[in-house]
């Protein structure tokens, strides 16, 4: 006896529903909680030794501090706010080569836009923590992926949920459920032939009639690039964005003086924005090598500007030649005279260069190697260590103040003007406030803001980068014969790409939940199946389905 069409239709529908539910039950339950931008720890080789993090892909359950005793993090990605992450913990994992699935460091959300009302103690703590963290991560090989992100409400909620799961005494895993952090990115590749670009411009001086001698030159120089643990976040507002901005304003001021033959000085002014500063001032070396020797010999002296955005009362003049040197003595006296009028002080630090050692601590030392008198003006009283104070994570807009840059510009510009125009000993303010030659605070503020939003790690800046084009355009507004010199970065460095990525955060159900869910669905399907059989074929047919069929006996031949 055949079943009715309606019964067949019902049976087909129930079968399809059963298949769908079984498939759903077999799939791991997970919802994308968030997708956020993250910044990868730098990866580079120094003299063939790998440093930073060579890993980029991440696919592990999230864990948070504090950790239970004996926790195994080899399959976990640790999520830690900056101020909660003990450096001793990281040092231990690196020194003992312990396995860690990954590390996500949450930076304070105000890092790029500090609240003006925030207390200085809190800012100091963040800055010192970041400096120590960078120092550790930059000089070690970190065998697991490390990312930075800015802490916000989503991450606060994520940390809270992770800690609730951890309070059960079991780490997040496929068994307990929790959150999974996933970064899907291709394997990082070497940056081929990283370029450094130097930008120069001239303000030619005024020659007298019948004067065939080359005019002397004064060079004002600042490197504009940066280096830090996260290349995509290394904006270097103070080091050395402040120096580059000061140079641009000095060029603007003297372009007004030099625009008229009546006020044009008898000195050429050479302005140089150099690259490769963190890498032994490699760009400065190449820039100087590119000059004809006769041009180098016309340079009376060079003033290099480095980290001038956070000083109040004291600036330092670093030199390689002894303070008794006539040029050095004269320059120092010029700075001292103006600084006294400004109510600030300029100190002098003498450090001989070791010609046999290729490492240079200051930019002026590259000039000294070419026998050109030079100095560095900086708020730093001592030379920084290798790859330190080069515009790391802590060097953001809050680190550089327009007032400090204005003081630097005033000190350098007035000193230069008195030297160029023979005004020594005469209390004359060439760049007096409210005059047509006054320093422009808005100009300085705007450029500081721009540089504080622009990562400038040289290997990731192409020679046709819009930022380099913007610097060239700006220098062209104030100087002549503007030229960009692009060259390959020399030295022992190899860099790798993949500096940014997208982190997907998934909320994952536990296996226990999956099994329970499967059990419920299975019970439901059995009941549904039994109901359909009873209503369409009767109870006897249902019993016959589960009854063991009678065995068949094989008759002998």
From TrEMBL:
Entry GO terms, CC: endoplasmic reticulum membrane
Record key words, sorted: Endoplasmic reticulum, Glycoprotein, Membrane, Signal, Transmembrane, Transmembrane helix
InterPro entries referenced in this protein's UniProt entry, alphabetically: EF_Hand_1_Ca_BS, Nicalin
Location in or out of the cell: Endoplasmic reticulum membrane
Coiled-coil residues: none
Membrane topology of the entry: Single-pass membrane protein
Pfam family, one: Nicastrin
Top-level division of the source organism's lineage: Eukaryota
Transmembrane segments: 515-539
Signal sequence region: 1-32
GO biological process terms, semicolon-separated: regulation of signal transduction
PROSITE patterns to which the protein is assigned, alphabetical: EF_HAND_1 (PS00018)
Family recorded in the similarity comment: Belongs to the nicastrin family.
Name of the protein: Nicalin
Source organism per UniProt: Oryza brachyantha (malo sina)
